[in-house]
# Entry
Amino acid sequence: MTISGLGPHGERAAPPERVSLLPEDIAAVKAASRRVAIVLHTLDGDWTRLQISGMLGVFGDCGVIVTEVVDCGFSADRQVAELDRLIAAQPDAIVALPVANEQVAAAFRRVSAAGIRLVLLENVPTGLLPGSHYTALVSSDNFGLGRMAAEGLAPHLAQGAAVGVLGFATDFYATNEREIAFTNWMQANRPDLRTYVMRFAAVDEAAHLGKRLLDENPQISAVFVVWDTPAMAVATQLNEADRSIVMATVDLGEDVAISLAAGKPFVNVAAQQPFKQGVVAAQTTILALLGGTIPAWIALPGIPVTRDNVADSFQIIWRKPAPRAVLHSLGLTK
Amino acid sequence: MPLSAEKAAEVTSIRKKGRPRTSETAAPSLVEILNLIRSERATTRQALERESELGRAVVADRLQLLSDLGLVDESELGHANGGRAPRLVRFAERRGLVLVATLDQTAIGVGVSDLSGNLLTEHHEAADLTAPAAQLASRLSTLFQWCLERQSTPTAPWGISLSVPGTVPTLRDDPFMTATPPVLPAWEDFPLVETLTRQFGVPVWMRSSVETMTMGELHAGSGHGLRSMLFIKVGRRIGAGIVCDGQFYRGAQGAAGLIGALPVQSDGVTGTLDAMAGSDMIQREGRAAAETGRSSVLADLLRRGTEITPIEVSQAAQIGDPASVAILSKSGHLIGQVVATLANALNPDLIVMAGTLAQTNDILLAGIREAVYGASHPLVTRDLRIIRSQMGSSAGLVGAARVASEAIFAPSFLKDWIIQGKPILHPDFAAFCARVQQAKAPPAIAAPPSV
# Structure
């Protein structure tokens, strides 16, 4: 699978294989007794759990101690405070997912100025440069995920249909890329469609905004939401309102998988590989601690998931069996 | 919406009889005070009086006017040195936005900056610059609209600045572009500047990618604070950006630094540096190495149906493929020989290598370093640093933003719009805008399907 997007500074993606660890790397980092902190947007949800799981395994294998895993609760202020606290604690490296752009940029600059290696996940605050302010960005091919969602939704849309897009109002690299790629693919390949875009500022606003989008544009017959948690909230709201539409999103959360297997409202999901991404982030951090040359952007391709491959994709992505409801809907269990 | 020529003429009319209005005589001192604040050479009222040599009453009057126009902000307090803390005078850099774009052979980047040239949002995506210009303009316009929608506080754009992959002839007198220069063959006869002016109602500036990237590196990258720097961009074409005494040097026609046209010799063959060391050569030699089996890595990729581009050759070299290493070393040495000549002539503090190949490949950089250190006077290389750019395509966006902010606040342009408060009310621009509104728009071309 190729990477279709470009990095936050227009970089070409480096494949995850570029940061593979050799036995001598593992021996060297074990001998160095390093400490790492992980700072995430939230600790809720399967995506985060798998990311952490992937990182902890690799760090453990390499004798790197994870001193803490911080939950920022999607709050820029909280992330700034936590980063400043961590600067005083002086870990050797921080793996972080910046929750915002401008509001957190200065705090991340302070981390690198304090000599702490910084590996970013999914987002780079504007103005921060690889090599100077952070070592590398590890992310999914978010542009590719947006295109994948559009490509999967298109066959379910009648000629001249109206499509709703629910984006994220926060200036965030990953969700920006998904939204742009989705609308770009539709404009280029289905010029007959009309797209209507709204953006939610917080996850708990998504359901309300989804309803508003459809109330103001009743002709909409399909909706794309930029990740699964708000997408499920929108789906629940629309189900309660007895609206029949088809949906696509990014990330194969458990509820979305069940909906996909049931055949409605989700018909297509562009899935990330959070466990693998966690592994790659940890490998990148270890190479950074060893002073190796690291590519500025390491990207992982997405996996297109439909009803046909939801059970096996669930196993690949989440490293556990698909929920019983999925297997039941697919007739794979009684 | 752009202002009509009549309206612009009305607001900027000069009184023909009697004493001139205060607004007519204030412009020179307003320009001076605003640029002192903008450049942070003066950040308090006392400093403004000292630097401008204007009286307290005049400074107070001009600050009031600038404040009314929303161009300065005095809400912040400075540090007290014994007495009362002075009120800081800050440039209101969020008063307007600048839309910026980089157009490369294989990608476009878009962004939004504030009026000081600080990038607020950016996005890059793959694109084909040989596609019809109307299609490119349409995509650019869509992405600019998207960038504006993303701003948490809705703010109007004040200008558009483009970074393009070719030389843009110097415009000595025009404060903004009034025609589209023939930068690329695919753009011939397409009025890109006029189209963007019509759609967004703001002035457009255009500079070569080498110039904007050099400006970006100088102001926000490794060159920050340096007086002398060489910026070398390696792609299909190889160009140099020259910074002397802290200023970008454009030359008589805006064509300084076209080192890709210089003849070089390798293995008994003479050709231009572009042809002998640019990415076309790397691609051609890489394909030949794949087809003849000289490179097992590239041959394997070819068998699997992968197209051999310079990126594949670069990645193969990075993992130690001998044939790919040889191709990139040859390119690096040839570029290094030419760069050494420039370094000996200019004695820079820093040489920054940019372009996808230079930024992702250690072998090319090593070849350049070896050639420069081997062919330069010891004094020239004593403290010389040769590094790769860490800004990527962001350098072009930051540089384009600097080009626009310098043009908007150039004293010769500023003096004719400052009283009105916005550059779109400059009489020359308002007249140009009215002219392009009346002209027939070029036909739109739909984007081709993505693959």
In short: Chain A has a mean pLDDT of 93. The interface with chain B takes residues 4-12, 14, 101-102, 126-127, 129-132, 143, 147, 169, 171, 176-177, 180-181, 184-185, 187-189, 191, 293, 295-296 of chain A (CB under 8 Å).
